[in-house]
Amino acid sequence: MTILLSDERVRAVPVVESGEPLVRLPRSLSPAGALVRAGLADRLMAADIQLPPGIRLRVVEGYRPVEEQRAIIASYAAQVRAHHPGVDDVELARLTSRFVSPVDVAPHVAAAAVDLTLVDVCGEELDLGTAIDATPEDSDGRCYFSAAGIGADAHAHRDLLASVLTRQGLVNYPTEWWHWSFGDRYWALMTGARHALYGPVAAAVAA
Ligand SMILES: C[C@@H](N)C(=O)N[C@H](C)C(=O)O
């Protein structure tokens, strides 16, 4: 059974902030220059060199300011309401958290998560079954890491991604094949760590 980011068990995980700085990923790994915690950056670089020749990781997003997280929540919650008329507020929050995290436990706001994919030598994205940020509604559930209804290549590419990232200690959010994190509260719950390493980062600190 999938544990969502809105689950009380995630919120119950304590954070013992390590104070680890944010670093900008190299452009070869993240043309957008995503910012992440130093420990996550090291793990991503280690995962990248484990890939077969001709395949690289491509990180499209890392740290996200809290205002941006709030804006994504508001926008997607409105879409969920339109798709699921009549849901109460509790169910709305649960359904919304399949695609975007509540602010207080948000892995991107802690600079502890990345959205990423695989690219070939020309920088072209490989087939992972859906676009990054395809919602459950738009993709008919194919955004879930273990979804049926995607091709053999997409399955193989998701498995390849998982093999190099889990070896570095990252965990996937099962409703989004592209979302991987390290050191946040969701990661702590999933790995059995006693506490999270990284809490929310203020925009002023990230600047
Ligand atoms: C909105 C989507 N790209 C995303 O980042 N989702 C995760 C679960 C999050 O909000 O942390």
From TrEMBL:
Source organism of this protein record: Nocardioides hankookensis
Keyword Transmembrane in record: no
Keywords per UniProt: Cell wall biogenesis/degradation, Dipeptidase, Hydrolase, Metal-binding, Metalloprotease, Protease, Zinc
Protein name per Swiss-Prot or TrEMBL: M15 family metallopeptidase
Catalytic activity entry: D-alanyl-D-alanine + H2O = 2 D-alanine
